[in-house]
Amino acid sequence: MTKQIRFFITCIICIIALIFVVFPVKASNMRIKINFGIEAEDKIYTDNFNLYYAIDGGDFSEEYKIKGTLDDEKNEITFKIDPSLEKKITQFMLAFPEEDKILKLQSVAVSSGGLIKKNYTADYFFNNSNVPYTHGIGSINPVSTRGIAYIKTTTDAPYVLISEDLSTEIGRSFSNYHISRIVLVLLAVLSIVSYRVNVFGVKNEE
Amino acid sequence: MKNKSSYISYSVFLVVLLYLTYIYVMKALPNHLSDYNGHTYVYYPLFTREHIWEALSLAPYCMWHAVVFLFNKIMLMPLNNSSAYSACVFAALSFYVFAWTIKRSVKYHSVEISDFTIAFLAFLLCVVQPISLPWADVTAYSPNPLYSPTQMCVRAFTVLCFCLVSDIWGLQENENYVGKYFHVENGSKKYYIMLALALFLSTMAKPTFAEMFIPAVAVMMLIKLLIRVTQKNEPGEYFKKCLYMLYAAIPALVSILIQFFTYFLFKGHGVEADGSFIITRFLEVWEIYSDNVILSMILSLAFPMLMLLMDTRFFIKNSDRLLIIICLVISFFESAFFGESGGKFANCNFFWPLMSAMLLLFFVAVERLVVLSARDYENRYQRLLIAGAWILVIFHGFFGVLELIGA
Question: Cα distance from A139 to chain B (closest Cα, Å)?
């Protein structure tokens, strides 16, 4: 094979790899996970948590509601957000179960495409600047030294409104698998290089 | 003296493995959602004279249950202990097979390593789990799914079948071939019979391995046959060898067919009689548990992938190593396209072959690492790569021990 043909084939492969990496694909689901810690007294027994979202500055409604699922082992509530909502969500509202209870929140993680994109400590997530309005909430006490927050809920439809800034930040976390696709291309390239270089020189072995 | 120290090495690692396995099973048994609970308290009690057909239709692969029966009904041990001891029996069998095959392999390659290292590697292979990273939010499948009694039961047969096929192929290619694992140089007939037996036993432990392995062997042999036809290199003679392999697979194939018909067509899975075999959208079942299949695979196979990248030629140029790659590809597509309908859709029952293929890849990668580590290298990058591979395999083992102790 002449040098020119080899160069041409390499160029074609590079172009295909580039297209594979940058080609727009459907985004992955986004998951918002609220963790309540692992201690027995912090255990939550209900998955009656709901996440409402507003689209393009509109209002919250029952139509735009995501029901949480409880992971009993991790003591965690997960909200799965459909990729069709990418770049549309402008604000979130988190509704708690209607009961008189003090909840200890540990962290809020936002993941998409299998990677945790943002990991907020509860004291940051639920501080005054990120929670501009509440309803049916007795009190919110962020404990910055431990990174946790205590939220006292009541039976009067408790919910917290998440600020637009934080909601937009979360809404931007949808993954389009760019890193994964780059890794896949890198693996393919590395295996071809390894085959050619034959690092351990085992051409005639066995 | 050397013998004494080697016995101690094997014994120490075996005792640790058995202890961890026993504790793991005893912890898992009270959990209603665990496989151990299901097999011990739901399926096993049906293995009585009155309900035997129902039991066989629920769990036609009954090797694990038979060992529980041995402990529970014949040795009159409590059921939970019997279940844990059965898991220990199969863990010990896997440990023995790993240790023995590694020992044979290093001897074949004239590599000098201590029995302590062999015992350590056998232990690692028995426990390796996917690497867990704090920023990864995916389910990664394991070559050692500790939660499944039946999959843990099939591991030893998985490795045995692979080693037998590897040696039989070696002899088919070269009449002067000296067996790597078995003494096939003395005649291969006995080893075809052994392969037939091992494959059949694997289907009695869990048929999922043979469902992937037999097609993979068939694909490889077909490719070899086609190459021989095009090269006019005694294709007729090779076709005969293909037939011998097919004969060896017949008992396993019959067993799989019977199990398949009982399980899916006669709706043998009584309690949840809503699941039947379906073809799914690509990766539909995967997506329930993992938003990023590439990351899941990398976490599961970090060490073998590094070995593959380090030494691609070794994995591609050899037909038995290529067989494992084909096993991996076939099992990946099985997991990507096959599923069960209804309530069992999320059960991932077509992921088991992938886990067996992962185990084989780990086994071959460890074997290769041992051989490469025994050489002297002047190049610092080679030394760095070998060190990196050791670190990765130890990480896999570390996460395995964490999983076993439930941390």
Answer: 31
A111 touches chain B (CB under 8 A): yes
User: CA of B51, closest CA in chain A: separation in Å?
Assistant: 35
Residue B385's identity, in one-letter code, is L
Tokens linked to B126:
């028995």
Q: Which residues, at least 6 apart from B292, have a Cβ–Cβ distance to it below 8 Å? A: A28, A113, A114, A115, A175, A177, A180, B138
Nearest beta carbon to residue A191 from set B137, B292, B308: B308
- The ipTM (two decimal places) reads 0.86
Instruction: Quote the crossing angle between the two packed helices B352-373 and B149-173, to the nearest 10°.
Output: 60
Is residue B360 within 8 A of residue B159, CB to CB? The reply is yes
Give B301's contacts in chain A (Cβ within 8 Å).
Answer: none
For A:8-37, CB contacts with B below 8 A are 28-29, 31, 33
Reading the block at residue B176, the tokens are 């002067």
Q: State the helix-helix crossing angle for B380-405 and B302-310, rounded to 10 degrees.
A: 160
| Predicted structure pTM score | 0.91
**DSSP assigned state of B132:** -
Count Cβ atoms below 10 Å from residue A67 Cβ, excluding itself: 12
> B177 to chain A: nearest residue by CA?
A206
Q: CB A29 to CB B134 under 8 A?
A: no
Beta carbons within 8 Å of B267's beta carbon, 6+ residues apart = B273, B276
- Tell which residue, B387, B295, B278, has the closest CA to residue B338: B278
Query: Considering only alpha carbons, which residue of chain B is nearest residue A177?
Result: B292
Choose the closest CB to A113 out of B292, B316, B385: B292
Rg of chain A, C-alpha, whole Å = 24
Nearest to B292 among A28, A199, A203 (CB): A28
Going residue by residue through chain B, which has 407 residues, state the pLDDT in tens, using 9 for 90 and above: 567 778 899 999 999 999 999 999 999 999 988 999 999 998 898 888 888 877 777 778 889 999 999 999 999 999 999 999 999 999 999 999 999 999 999 999 999 899 999 999 999 999 999 999 988 989 899 999 999 999 999 999 999 999 999 999 999 988 889 999 999 988 889 999 999 999 999 999 999 999 999 999 999 999 999 999 999 888 899 999 999 999 999 999 999 998 888 776 665 554 455 567 889 999 999 988 899 999 999 999 999 999 999 989 888 888 889 999 999 999 999 999 998 887 778 888 899 999 999 999 999 999 999 999 988 888 888 999 999 999 999 999 999 999 999 87
Q: How far apart are CA B298 and CA B136, in angstroms?
A: 11
Burial string for B62-82 (b: 16+ CB within 10 Å, else e) reads bbbbebbbebbeeeebebbbb
Could you tell me which residues of chain B have a Cβ less than 8 Å from any Cβ in chain A?
134-138, 290-292, 294-296, 298, 305, 308-314, 316, 318, 372, 381-382, 385
Nearest CA in chain B to A117: B135
Could you tell me which chain A residue has the CA closest to the CA of B302?
Answer: A187
